[in-house]
Amino acid sequence: MSYDKVKQAAKLSIGNKQATKTVEQGKALEVFVAKDADPRITIKMVNLCKKMGVNVTYVDSMKLLGKACGIEVGAAVAAVVND
């Protein structure tokens, strides 16, 4: 499962604002989107990733994505950052 990629990432941008910045700056290697997140939030991110050529991986839930990111709350979006 792709959660391993999130757990092993040296640097993450967690949350829509942070991840959006990372993608816009061309620093995102891959973006993870929770399937149960509000589509009004995630659709912009998915479209931005398409435009920027960033791979989008869907994960089952915000709770699991948050856990993989090492945070106590759910995460709708997380980006693996290329430093």
What is the topology?
Blueprint: H1 3-8, E1 12-14, H2 16-24, E2 28-34, H3 39-52, E3 55-59, H4 62-68, E4 77-81
Parallel strand pairs: 2-3
Antiparallel strand pairs: 1-4, 2-4
Helix pairs in contact: 2-3
Pfam family, one: Ribosomal_L7Ae
Keywords: Ribonucleoprotein, Ribosomal protein
Protein name: Putative ribosomal protein L7Ae-like protein
Total DSSP helices: 4
The biggest beta sheet, please?
4 strands, mixed
Distance between the termini: 24 Å
Query: Uncertain spans, ≥5 residues at pLDDT below 50?
Result: none
Question: Shape from CA axes?
Answer: globular
CATH C-level label: Alpha Beta
Proportion of helical residues: 40-55%
Domain Ribosomal protein eL8/eL30/eS12/Gadd45: 5-82
InterPro entries: Ribosomal_eL30-like_sf (IPR029064), Ribosomal_eL8/eL30/eS12/Gad45 (IPR004038)
Organism: Paenibacillus mucilaginosus 3016
Pfam family, one: Ribosomal_L7Ae
Task: Explain what the structure shows.
The chain has 83 residues and is α+β, with helices and mostly antiparallel strands. It has a single domain, classed as 60s Ribosomal Protein L30, Chain: A. 43% of the residues lie in helices and 24% in strands. It is built from four helices and four strands. Strands 1-4-2-3 form a four-stranded mixed β-sheet. Helix 3 links the parallel strand 2 and strand 3. The longest helix is centred in the middle third of the chain and has 14 residues. The radius of gyration is 11 Å and the shape is globular. The model has no long low-confidence stretch (mean pLDDT 93). InterPro entries: Ribosomal_eL30-like_sf, Ribosomal_eL8/eL30/eS12/Gad45. It holds the Pfam family Ribosomal_L7Ae. This is Putative ribosomal protein L7Ae-like protein. Keywords: Ribonucleoprotein, Ribosomal protein.
